[in-house]
Amino acid sequence: MKHHLTTSAPLNGSHKDRKTEPLWMKLTGIIFGSVLAAIGLELFLMPHGIVVGGITGLSAIFALSTELRLGLFLFLLNLPFIVLQRKYSGNSVSLLTFFGVLIISLGTFLLHPFPALLNEPLAAALLGGLSLGFGIGLALRFGSYLDSAEKAVSNLPFTRWITPEGLVMLFNCLVLIIAGFHFGFEQAIYSVTAYLLAYESIKLCLSGFRFYNQVQIESHHCVRIQEALFNYLNREADFIKQDSQDGEPDQIQLKCHRWEVSRLKAIVLNCDPDSEILILP
């Protein structure tokens, strides 16, 4: 048995089309996002040895392990992926990505001499993760990938046993595991906290700060699904199409908080593993 799950707003950069916006607006958004991300890194996370995932996290590990600056590693490690990205995405996206990476690299250089804004590592992980996530998300909304590996990897050919998203997640986990072994268990807890907050902040920024998603479900067991959603999520689902004579499944629709989506999927698939779930923006 198999089920189908689709979403109209993936995190691989296929967000709202901004090609019609003027260049000055894109550059302004990228600058603001890059500076916000640099603040999160240099004034919150790096002083406490807190590492997030991706190229940003790998750069932080190298910077914390050597006497070299974070900005240098951010620029050098992103550069090969920007070149690879240019091959598949064209000059426009690559130049905006290069501009964003340059700004965040310079920003971390300029902010490095300043002391940490917080002395408590947990608070620094929370605010640093939020600042980094919203900065990366804002830059993404205007066409710049501050962590260019994900976009470049998404264009590579893959086999059935791994997807671009799976490879990126595997790489992020590997970075966090390395940071945990290198800096200790307590730092690993702070790093995971900052990473999760940054990840959720990026999603929130890309979704336009909408906390609720419209969910459409197709199934032959809609009545059972309706009852389960009401009992376990306290959500009422409405029919939008009845069964036809050719045996097509019913459709139900409801609003769901974005943090409840994973639980909703589990409930629906437990009632009908062959159901189709569509997450609308």
Automatic annotation (TrEMBL):
Keywords: Cell membrane, Membrane, Transmembrane, Transmembrane helix. Pfam families: YitT_membrane (PF02588). PANTHER family: UPF0750 MEMBRANE PROTEIN YITT-RELATED, UPF0750 MEMBRANE PROTEIN YQFU. It is a multi-pass membrane protein. Its main location: membrane. The chain crosses the membrane at residues 23-46, 58-81, 93-111, 123-146, 167-185. This is YitT family protein. It comes from the Bacteria. InterPro entries: UPF0750_membrane, YitT. It is found in: Cell membrane.
